[in-house]
Specification:
nine-stranded mixed beta sheet, 2 domains, 29% helix, four-stranded antiparallel beta sheet, 14 helices, single chain, Immunoglobulin-like, elongated, 19 strands, Alkaline Phosphatase, subunit A
Amino acid sequence: MSNHHNNKTGRGISPEQGKSHTEDHSLWSRRTFLRQLGVAGSFSFLLGRFPINAIAGSPLALALNATNDERILVLIRLKGGNDGLNTIIPVFNYGIYQQQRPSIAVPNNQIISLSAELGMNSAMQPLENRWLDGQMKVVNNVGYPDHNLSHFRSTDLWASARNADEDADSGWLGRLLNQEFPDFLSNPPQDPPAIQIGGAGNLVFFNEDEVNMSVQVTNPEQLESIALTGQLYDPTAVPFCYYGEQLSYLRTVANATFRYAQVISQAYQNGANNGAPYDGSLGAQLALVARLIKGGLRTRLYMVELDGFDTHAGQENNHPNLLNSLATAVDAFYEDLADGAHDQRVLSMTFSEFGRRIEQNSSSGTDHGTAAPLMLFGPGLNGNGFLGGLPDLVNTDENGNLHFEVDFRSIYATVLEQWLCVEPDLVDEVLGQTFDRLPGLGLDCLAVGTQAPIAAFNPELTAYMRGGELYISYELPATMPVQLMLFNMLGQPLRQIFSGVQASGLQEHRIPLSDINWAAGVYVCSLRAGSHTVSKPIALVNR
C-alpha cells in the first residue's frame, strides 16, 4: 500500500507535499470513474438484469405485503473534509485557537454563541433558530481509530463503516437494505429504497454483491428530468438518420425498463415546495427531496452532497460561503417540510471524510486532519445540545491532530436503532460489530411531535367491482393523511385515486372502470393511512 493511501505519520496531505496530494486526488477520481461505470451500466437504474420471472408474481407479493416506515434519514455529505474548528468554534480556548490560526480564525464578533464553551460560525446564522427550537445537535470529536488522511480511503471507511485495516467492500446502508430486500434485483420494491444525488462511486448504498440499491443521479437536474417526464431519456432528441432511429429505440427500451421513473414522477407531481428560500446546489437537491417526500414517495433513505470542503488555500473566503450554503439549504428544507408536518419524520445528518489540522498552513488554509463535529437536524432530536466533549487543542496526537472521542459508527448504530427502529442485533450485524449507542441524541422509536400516537390499527380495506365501477372503502380511526393507489401486476402505479387528509370514519370511493383503462386481470389496491399501509388484490374480469 502506498504511503499516500495510508498516511498516518505525515503532517496531513497538503499541496506542499506535491506528489502525494496529487496522487491521492488522481486515485480518488480514477477509482470513482471505474466504480461509476459499474453503477451506471448495471444496477443503479435497474436497466437490464430484470428477470422474466420477476414479472410473474413477486411485485404483486411485495405490493400485498408492503409496509411503510414513516421515518426518513437524509445524509448530507460535506465532500472534501470539513474544517470542524471553523464550523463549531472552541470559544473556551479561543486564545490557542487564534494562535494556531492567525489569519483564518473566525473573529469573536462573527461567532454565534451556542453555549459557554462553543459557538457557531455566523455564516450559519440561518440555523440559529433551529438550535433555539431544539432541532439541532452537534457531536464533537467524531472520527475512528487509525485515521486515514486519504480522501478516497477515508470516504470508503465512512461509507462502509469498516475498520481502517479492512476492505471497504459494501456500504452500511447497502447492507441494511439488503436485509430488507434480499432479492432486490429480481423482486424490487415498489418505491426506490434509497435516492442518491451526486457522490459518484460512493459505497454507502452498495450491498456485498456490489449492487447499488439506490437510484443514483449525477445532479438534481437529472432527477428532476426523470420526475417531470417519467423517463430516463428523451427518445425524440436524436439525429435524423439510421443511427438516430437505433438510438431512439434503445432509449425507449431503457425508459420502459427503468422501474422507478413513473413512481418518482407521480410523487413529484403530487408534491410541491412551499416557497421556502432554497439557494445553490445543495438547496436544489434538498428542494427536490422535500417535494418527493411531500408527494408520497416511500423512499426512506436519501443522500445529497455539497462539494468544496478541501480547503487547502484561501479558506477565510470560501469556507464561510460553504457553511452558509449548508445552513440556508437545511433551514429551507425544514421550513418546507413543516408544511404538512413532514419535518417531524425527517432526520438529517452531516458527514465528511475527515476534519482539518488545528494549525493553518502557509496558504491560509488547512490540511487534512482527523476528528471533527457531526451535525444532526430535525424535531425528532427533542432538544439541542452537544455530545462528544470539547475539542482538545493542546493534547493532540503525534501529528498535531485532534484525538477522536466518538466513533462515527456509534452515531450510525444509534440512528439505525433509535430512529429507523432497526432491531439491535441486526444493527450489530449490519455494522459488523457492536458500537456504543448515544442516548444523548434524544432519538427514540416512539412517535415524534406533540400529537399523541394513534393506537395500533389495521385499516380494513374493501375493494370490489360492480356494474362497471370499482368500489373501495375503508374506515379511519382519526384524521390523517391518506394516499390510495392502484397498481398493476408489475407493481407499476396505474392511478392515484386519492391523496390528501381525510377525517375519521368510513371513506368510500367509486371509480368507473373506463377511467382506469382496465383490462381483465389481477390488480392491487394500496392504502396508505398515516404510518400504516395495507393492500388488497382485486380481480377484474370480463362479464
